[in-house]
Amino acid sequence: MSHIRLFDEQKAKEVKMIRRTFAAILLLSVVLALLSGCTTPMPIVKEVPVEKTVVVTKEVMVTKEVVVTATPAPTPEPALTIIDGAGRVVTIPKTPERIVSIASAATETLYAIGCGDKIVGVDKYSDYPPEVKDKPQVGSGSKLNVEAVLGLDPDLVVIWWFNKEAIKTLEDKGLTVVAINPKSVDGVMDTIRMLGLITGHLEEAEKLIADMQARINEVTAKVKDIPKEQRPLVYYELTKPMKTTGPGTFTNELIFMAGGINIAADEPVRYPILSQEYIIERNPDVIILISGGASVDEIKGREGWQNIKAVQNDRVYTIDRHLVTSNPRIVEGLEQFARWFHPDLWK
Fold first, then answer.
1. No. of H helices and E strands in the chain?
2. pTM, rounded to two decimals
3. 225-346: same fold as 80-212?
4. pLDDT tens-digit profile of 169-189?
């Protein structure tokens, strides 16, 4: 019996040992499983060169959406306020692009400073440069076709200062109107500058003025030292017989600048009508006729005029009317006068 008890005790110890070993193995398996679940295998990384491309555009692509960069709104053009030839305060809201010129001098000036393409209509007296003939006509300042002007949709109308009724009518229709009133050679250049400023062509206007002034200076420099007794007495006739130009006129100024003496310079009015007797008595050395008026032969055939020195010496001339009015070509008129008065200086 004792032998059997010893065997049973030994057997129990072996079973117990097996159970402990199995528990240890089981515990180790669990630990290994946990460690295996918490560890992420390290990936094999292979470096691949990446080509970078930078494109600069006004559009930026972001997940297939186009984002357009905002363009800043243009700064509004400031309005320009001037005092025009009629002494009125005029505000020009923007640089004009469609101009109607109801003054031939303004038409010629606008072309001279490079604004011919902005002219959409002219008065019936605008005939220079030649291409102006292709522009629509709107009548004249005294007989204006207002509906024709409105139909051209101008943002600026330029007109002579004395067409006051037309100015009021056009402004009542909501149009911007600028009047011109040059009274002298300097006034012509001031008008050129004003139109250059209004149209955004001031640089071209100043260049034109500088050229005109240089030519004027050349003439006046040659005649400034000529004594009074050597300056020719000049009679200038307009389209109406015996009507001439007196103080405060372009022609009077041009005659003086060119080295002559106007026989009507001391008259009390700007455009006096002289008697034939007075003209014959003054006995001018030079007679100048405006184009469109009397011819040279007509002057020479007038009774009693054969005794005038200008007729006797064949010094009767006709001047193109465009060269003695308020446009840039007035300098050409001055140069022509100087050549007629003092031909020896221009040989």
1. 11, 12
2. 0.77
3. yes
4. 999 999 999 999 999 999 999
Q: Compute the chain's Rg from CA coordinates.
A: 48
Q: C-alpha angle with apex 335: 332 to 336, nearest 5 degrees? A: 85
**Domain spanning 80-212: which superfamily?**
Nitrogenase molybdenum iron protein domain (3.40.50.1980)
Alpha helix (H) residue ranges in the chain: 2-38, 104-112, 146-151, 164-172, 185-199, 202-223, 250-257, 276-282, 296-301, 309-312, 330-341
CA distance 26 to 262: 137
| Per CATH, domain 225-346 is 3.40.50.300 | no
Task: Retrieve residue 191's tokens.
Answer: 């008008």
Structural contact between residues 295 and 318, judged by C-beta atoms closer than 8 angstroms:
yes
Tens digit of each residue's pLDDT (9 = 90 or more) over 71-97: 666 666 678 999 999 999 999 999 999
Both structure tokens of 26 = 């089981």
Where are the domains positioned within the chain?
80-212, 225-346
